[in-house]
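Narrative progress, year one. The postdoctoral researcher (J.K.) led the effort to move from monomer predictions toward full complexes, under supervision of the PI. The following entry was the first complex the group processed end to end, covering 1065 residues in total.
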Amino acid sequence: MKPAPFAYARASTLAEVFDALETHGDAARLLAGGQSLVAALNLRLASPSLLLDINGVAALRGVTFADGLLRIGALTRHAELGADPLVALHAPLLAQAVPHIAHAAIRNRGTIGGSLALADPAAELPACVLALEAVLVLASRAGERRVAAGDFFQGLYRTALRGDEVLAAVEVPPRAGASCTVQELARRHGDYAIVGLAAQSLGQGVQLAWFGVGAVPLRTPLAEAALAAGDIAGAQAALAGELDPPGDLHGPPALRLHLARVLLGRAAAALKGH
Amino acid sequence: MNELSSVDRPNSYIGRSVPRPNAKRLVAGRGQYVDDLRLPRMVHVAFLRSPHAHARILSIDSTAAKAAPGVVRVVTGAEMAAVCTPWVGVLHHLKGLKSAPQHALVVDRACWQGEPVVAVVARTRAEAEDAVGLVEVAWQELPAAVDMEAALATGTPVIHPDLGDNLAFTREHVGGEPDACFADAESVVVQAVFHTGRHTGVCLEGRAILADYNPAEGRLTAYHSNQAPHMMQTVFAKHLGLREGDVRVVCRDVGGSYGIKVHVYPDEMATAALSKMLGRPVKFAADRMEGMVSDIHARDHRIAARAAVTKDGVITAMEIDDLTGIGPYSVYPRTSAVEGNQVVNLCGGPYGLRGYKARTTVVFQNKTPTCQYRAVGHPIATTVTEGLVDLAAEAIGMDPAEIRRRNLLADDVYPFRNLAGLAFEGLSHHACLTKLLAMMDYEGLKAERDALRAKGVYRGIGIASFIELTNPSPFMYGIGGARISAMDGATVRLDPDGSVAIASGVTEQGQGTEAMLAQIVAGAVGVDLSRVRVTTGDTETTPYGGGTWASRGAGIGGEAALQAGNALREQILVIAGAMLQAAPESLDVRGDAVVDRDTGAERLPLEELGRIVYFRGDTLPKDLPRELVATRHYTPKDYPFAFTNGAQASYLEVDVETGFVKLLRHWCVEDCGTVINPMLVDEQIRGGVVQGLGGALLEHCVYSPEGQLLTGSLADYLLPMSGEMPDIAVAHVETPTKESALGAKGAGEAGTAGAPAAVQNAINDALRPFGARVFAQPFTPARILPALGKI
């Protein structure tokens, strides 16, 4: 379990990152927290010729609130996300998700940008930014472009990120006062969820974003509408038409659908309890 | 003054929770595991492993691999076969057991996904792995025999055509009158089909070997992460064409073993052979991915079982039909028939039955070989037996604790031979159960469970009594022709500074063997524990022995150490008597000195005695013996095995909406005879319980229909982790074996033996209001929810 040979370089500015991406193209991989990438290297599931360490790029760091937007730098570690007062105030859903992410050692290194760019369909943060209707800021030599979370996740481990781009930050419209809950079922604490749900309600609206039930995190608009109308059973019933979960080692598709209904019931109770 | 027994001396350490002498070193990161060792001119090997469950090699092209940076040698099966002879994993006493010759590297046909095919030796492991990726093997895939249920069916490929079929072994045992019991019109018959999922033992330190063949002296030294160095000495010698005396096996620190590291593995044999071929040290350290497909698996059983019970709660008979798939080869040299054989031996073990019938069918399949893993066969037999007992209790409306009280062998019935033919010297089922029920506050717990049910919280209580085989005599392997010692020895020596050195044939794998040996010898000689040091795991410097497995370290190795320690004390006192002109019987050793036995007054520091003996022997009487070293060996003779017993209980909650199980509490009361170090025994029990809980709830080697292991990493093969583990309370009843002065029986496997059964019974207790039951491990949401009719 040794990685194939690779070169390592450390970038300190975005310009250096863009240089490397231009020169090496797909053969370069960006190293942030490394919590998935390094394992993939050791398993030889990934064998880039260049590992470009972006941990020193200041432009990717920090959490700010300005002009009515919460901006979370891509290098924000999970542990920082969970402890940040601005996140707790404006995007409490993210703060609630953090304890569910793996284990403390992983949360100390793993980054929100890494998690979103990897787009593991069973991970918490992609579903959270989907529920938050956040915008992902993608930087390239040409400048920044903004992609809605709903358009960012395009398939299994596939995102809207182009080869010359870096995920720079996440911008979240403020949700102060929102009720929110993260519900997930994992066989052991810290494992990827069999089924998970990031849910939020504010005013009349309800957002439900599922993880572990498909190739990408998913919203379920019919269930959201039913839940917004106070019809929990209707929301649960709607899931059969909106989710088409895969079977795997945990069990058949029917298991996931059943568990999703259970989680929806629990999420509804949690949202109401706020 | 009363005569004190040899284990009950005034300065004894028996029964004291002293810290392990090696703990500080290991915690400080100063251990020496195989992968820590670096020898001059050492190279590394990585293996190309079969990607298919069953496939023929058409051709191998190593050209690119040989040209890769750092590569020293690329070796195929045909070249390997010229250096390392194949082996066959059979034993005479397992009548009819058959297996096929197994090679270190596949010669022409791979029989499981993960079987080593080509060895690539390079300067570093990374370079060896790079080059493995360049070896081109043209495979012809063959139909695979994967499902054990279909192994003997027409149309299933026969894995070894020379053997005729895929049946490795079968045995049926009938005791008493089972048919009459089942035919009794007054009795109720209960039945179930149990599955114990295939799983494996995951050691913190993976398998590893550093083989150093020195052509100048024609000797092989193997630094090996292993439990049985003397067994491996024999195996290396036999299959590499060396004399046993020219092989040295050294087991320094070993990071867990659980039976995984007591078998002969083709990749380890290949590493030793490569060292002989290259004349230089070769290291192999299995990574986790290759460990998952090449470490032995275990417990892949389907058991159809039934029991007859009278309406007043007497369980009269059990009938067991066991089927197990062992992979394509019976593992050498202990064989893969032992687990099924143990199921036949152990089912019904705690109970006084009138009829017992049991059969095992052991079949070949194209999966990773299975063999002995901690508590071999016990968790299976206990799960079946205790599952049947609970079904019987439910069928006649009796409390699960009460039906056990009525059927467990009485504590005064021993010695006793049961219908399976097992001889019990002395067990304590009732004492253990009584203590268990008191510890857990059984009645209070039941009341709590019942009160919570009214609130829609479904908790269950499960009890499991069990027996455990420990201290095996030559009846386990020796009579079958295996050169696996049932005897063990200890050498104990007094050095001039008054310190004591022990060398023992039993081995340390992290469980505290060396602490146990030090305590016994410190007490026997009389010295302070801090003056004792222990050497284990070196065929060159320790007495010949079997190593540590089958819970034999304390019972056999400990007794040898006790006898050797007593002999050294006698030697010291004879010499001291001559120096002090006192009768040796009037003296004793306590602390750092020879003392007056009655008053405890110091007479002579040991250091002074050592100085005189070693450096001024001229001052001693000419005919005085001056041996300050004694070796003693011990082998159990009166009983084939020292059986122990115990009882466990689990308290848990089933989320009936999700099918998730939350473990709340776990209790174990067991009887390993004399407890030498309560802390170490308790932690052995707890660790064993956790492994049992893992098997019950999480761990599962899942294969595709084509024979591909789907749970090939620790992301998919779920190990129990601390967050999900309950508090585990441990207590003891002590019934020492009279066969030895020490009285110790084994404690290493009791936790694993009983935990899955307790969990199974607790889950079914929680599900009882719904009429739902589960008997297939691991008990996952995907199994519990269908039982509840939720999916």
